[in-house]
Write a structure and sequence with these properties.
Helices cover 65% and strands 11% of the residues. The protein is α/β, with parallel strands linked by helices and 577 residues long. The chain folds into 2 domains: 8-318, ABC transporter transmembrane region fold (Up-down Bundle), CATH 1.20.1560; 336-576, Rossmann fold (3-Layer(aba) Sandwich), CATH 3.40.50. Helix 9 runs antiparallel to helix 10 (277-318).
Length: 577
């Protein structure tokens, strides 16, 4: 039976439990502030009756002095209370962002593919920022205002219960209206958050694909898309604002009704001589003072409901399952990597892109995979480091299903160089040592030399300590490629996957890099998705893929003699090179 989602109280408790010490200190100061609010209302009667009504003007100086001291103390209490509650909110945001980032980094590639990066960023940055309001605003308001209202109601009831009760009859109406409106607000807040995620996504898309946008002259349509998303966000935000302000307006009107009643009926009681003017003003002060916190409570209940909507979204996100891993350690590849009856369809799609793949890649050999574009070559090699799992069939490493292997240990044994090089905004040195944080500087230089990257790195402004731009855009394609190859060399794994690894290079650098690749391929299992003739001719075995199937496997000579598709591909290559 599926578990029912946890109640709001449980959710909030789980959220604030780690910061409970700060919250308790905040509560103590809240009670202090509430006590002073009560004292201010309480002192109106003795001030009125003993000083003004009894005409004891010699005691008049006590009044400003007393008020001044109470305000100083109340201000100090409020300051400390806010400090503790707000810093608890900041800690909450920091810790939740860390947890979300860890969740993202441990998600399977398949799950990541289902989310736009804009939506991810929106959840981690915007949603969590809103959540701090639960602690810093809603909880804080609740802690200060509820005791204040109770203390002030107590003062009013003590002074004259019937007059106080008359004014409090309207409170249930205010509470009901606030609750109803807040539920609408919660729903609308989710819509606003969704629109913001779309907006972030549109922005992110253009930043990542700026060249494509420019070459196809798509600036106009992209601006239109962004404006449309911005208009949706504006539209939803406006509806949210109308609801929130509408709630405030209704509360304002109901408060006005209550205060009018008290002034009318209280004035009548003073004229009849049933209560002193001191009693009347003390009750009036208490009730007027109580309405301000009540309004704040209404507003903070709305904020609280909004935040709960956000909290649900974040909890759903944090509960996404991480990559699954087996437990068996991997130490090199002794026998072979084997595909047994593997079918594959990308998660969330129905189209099968790999059909019945049976392949054996013996250790220590160079295995080339060729075929027309879109034949499924990259998809096939993505199954080896378990970026994806087969839909049917299994991939074996020395006879063990990859799912039984420890994921980190499996990936430690594989290096991957792709056509689309990803570099990080760190130094060149850190980018090369990305897979081996413990590498010495000498080893890093050695790897760079092997990858024919040492010379151009030396010419960079700070050599190996030059910080690369985002995605390494201050280097040429060939230079980025060589840094990626140096990264793979330094990792020095038993299995090397080269997915069109030299496609970004000109002929001259390609020759150099190819020599370097030949060097690193020696004696290790290398799986090459190739477009370079020499690599293919020298491979121990070649698999031809067509439409997600293995069309044939053999040596260069065998395939040239017996496979028309291979001959056609071969003639195209000869023509190009």
């Amino acid at each position: 039976m599926p578990q029912s989602p946890p109640s709001t109280t449980v959710r909030v408790w789980r959220l604030i439990r780690p910061y409970v010490r700060r919250v308790i200190i905040g509560i103590v100061f809240s009670l202090f502030v509430s006590g002073i609010n009560g004292a201010i209302a309480w002192l109106v009667k003795p001030a009125m009756d003993h000083i003004f009504v009894a005409k004891r003007y010699d005691l008049l100086w006590l009044l400003p002095a007393g008020v001044f001291i109470l305000y100083v103390l109340r201000g100090l209490g409020a300051l400390l209370q806010t400090y503790y509650m707000q810093t608890a909110g900041f800690k909450l945001v920091r810790d939740l962002r860390n947890r979300c980032f860890e969740t993202v980094i441990n998600l399977p590639v398949a799950t990541l593919g289902r989310w736009s990066s804009g939506e991810m960023i929106s959840r981690i940055m915007n949603d969590i920022g809103l959540l701090s309001k639960i602690l810093s605003e809603s909880f804080r308001t609740f802690m200060i205002q509820v005791p204040s209202v109770l203390v002030l109601m107590g003062v009013a009831l003590y002074r004259r219960w019937d007059l106080a009760l008359l004014s409090f009859t309207l409170l249930p109406f205010i509470a009901v209206v606030t609750r109803k409106m807040s539920q609408y607000v919660k729903r609308k807040r989710k819509d606003v958050q969704h629109c913001l995620a779309v907006l972030t996504h549109r922005m992110n898309e253009v930043l990542l694909g700026s060249k494509v946008v420019k070459i196809f002259n798509m600036e106009g349509p992209k601006v239109k898309q962004f404006r449309r998303a911005g208009q949706d966000h504006y539209h939803q935000s406006t509806r949210l604002l109308r609801l929130k302000e509408g709630t405030k307006y209704v509360n304002e009107v109901l408060s006005g009704v209550a205060v009018s009643f008290i002034i009318g009926y209280g004035g009548f009681l003073v004229v009849k001589g049933e209560i002193t003017s001191g009693d009347f003003f003390s009750i009036l002060t208490a009730i007027v003072m109580a309405f301000a916190p009540l309004k704040k409570l209404g507003k903070s209940y709305g904020t609280f409901q909004e935040s709960i909507g956000v909290l649900e979204r974040i909890e759903d996100f944090l509960e996404l399952p991480p990559e699954s891993s087996g437990t068996k350690e991997v130490t090199g590849l002794k026998g072979e990597i084997r595909f047994l009856g593997v079918d594959f369809a990308y998660p969330g799609t129905k189209a099968t892109v790999l059909h019945g793949i049976n392949l054996s890649i013996p250790s220590g050999t160079t295995f080339a995979i060729v075929g027309p574009s879109g034949a499924g070559k990259s998809t096939l090699v993505d199954l080896i480091p378990r970026f994806y799992d087969p839909t049917r069939g299994e991939v074996l490493w020395d006879g063990t299903d990859l799912k039984e292997l420890d994921l980190r240990s499996l990936r430690k044994n594989i290096a991957l160089v792709t056509q689309d090089v990803i570099l990080f905004s760190d130094t060149v040195r850190e980018n090369i040592a990305f897979g081996r944080r413990d590498a010495t500087f000498e080893e890093i230089v050695e790897a760079a030399k092997l990858a024919q990257a040492h010379d151009f790195i030396e010419e960079l402004p700070n050599g190996y300590d030059t910080v690369l731009d985002e995605r390494g855009l201050n280097l040429s394609g060939g230079q980025r490629q060589r840094i990626a190859i140096a990264r793979a060399f330094l990792k020095n794994p038993p299995v090397l996957i080269l997915d069109e690894a030299t496609s970004a290079l000109d002929t001259l650098s390609e020759q150099g890099v190819q020599e370097a690749l030949d060097e690193v391929m020696r004696g290790r299992t290398t799986i090459v998705i190739a477009h370079r003739l020499s690599t293919i001719q020298n491979a121990h075995q070649i698999a031809i893929m067509d439409n997600g199937r293995i069309a044939a496997v053999g040596t260069h000579k065998e395939l040239l003699a017996g496979n028309p598709l291979y001959r056609e591909l071969y003639q195209q290559w000869e023509h190009h090179h």
